[in-house]
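REVIEWER CHECKLIST
Item 1: Sequence provided? yes
Item 2: Single chain? yes
Item 3: Sequence as submitted:
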Amino acid sequence: MQESRLFSFIDEKSAFTLHFLHGGKLIQDIVQVHNIGPMAYEFYRDSILTSMQMLNFMKATENMGFYIDSDEPYFRLKIEMNEKGTMRTLLLPEEFEDFPKTVSGKARVTKAFPNKTPYSSVIQLKDHPAADIVNQALKDSYQVQAKVSVGHADLSVMFSKLPPSKLSEKFEEIIDEPLETFLETHKDLVPEIEKQDFVLKKADESSIIEFFTNKGLTYLGSKEVKFYCPCSKERMAANMATLSENDLKDVFKEKESIEVRCDYCNTIYDINQSELKAQ
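Item 4: Structure as written out by the authors:
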């Protein structure tokens, strides 16, 4: 398996879903694009692996942005994705003086659909554990009982309890247990996953499915998760064309063209003044 994939399963006895992200290729591709320093790497990696589990709650044609605006320590994290599984991201600055154990500031979840006004929810953070921000967003923005855990390998696992309406519709007899009890029962799952050949060696989709179905779970499906930036020279030119005439004069300073870099993928575009006049 050459790509990163997000697998979904269901425990029909307890009405919990389990979602497993094998994210090695995704993290590898992002590291090749962004020059992340060693102190920032673990936080950046874990933030990506946990936030990509939000894909499980996205609807058709939906685009979603997850943002952390941290004041202490200062940094800005942006993760944007669509329901098809493509995402782009950036972290500024790309290095920290120390690994952030807690964060004060705010997190934002923005959901957007074509031809509709975007919806945003804001989560205030005060000395909030850095590793738990996505779980707080799931609770506050999605109002679900869910918990995401990250392994030492490039993987994450999310347990999510189906809402009561879904339980009565789909299951006649279930073991109705709280999230905390279910998590305690499966507390050794992530360490066990990390010992499997599909993590230690070459990933194999059928081996992943077999591992979880052997634990009594029913396979629901999977989707590829990959880094992709939809930027283009035309989009860059269109954005620059919104600047005032005086600002454009300052930008070009009697030059015919300038180089513009996309913050998300570091692609550099050569923008000519004549291209802006055509906008």
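Item 5: Key structural point noted by reviewer: The longest helix spans residues 38-51.
Item 6: Recommendation: ____
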